Amino acid sequence: MKISNAKQFPVVVWVLIIGAFFARGTFFMVWPFMAIILFQKFQLSPWEIGLFMSLAAVSAVVTGFFSGTLTDRYGRKNVILAAGIISIFAFVGIAFANHIISYVFFMALCAISKEIWEPPVKVLISDSLPNTDLRELAFQLRYFAINVGAAIGPLMGVWFGVTAQQETFLLTAFSFVVLVLVLKYTFKHSTFIGQPTNLTKVTLKQTLHILRQDHVFLLLLIANMIVMFIYAHLDSSLVQYLTQSSTNNVIELVSFLIFTNACTIICLQFFSIKFLAHVSLIRRIYLGMFFLALSQLCFALNPIDFYAGWIIATFVMSVGETILFPNMNIQIDRIAPKHMKGVYFGAASFYSIGFASAPYIGGIILSAWSGSVLFCITFGLCFVVYAMYGLTQYAKRPNFEALIEKQIC
Question: Which residues are the signal sequence here (predicted)?
Answer without folding.
Answer: none
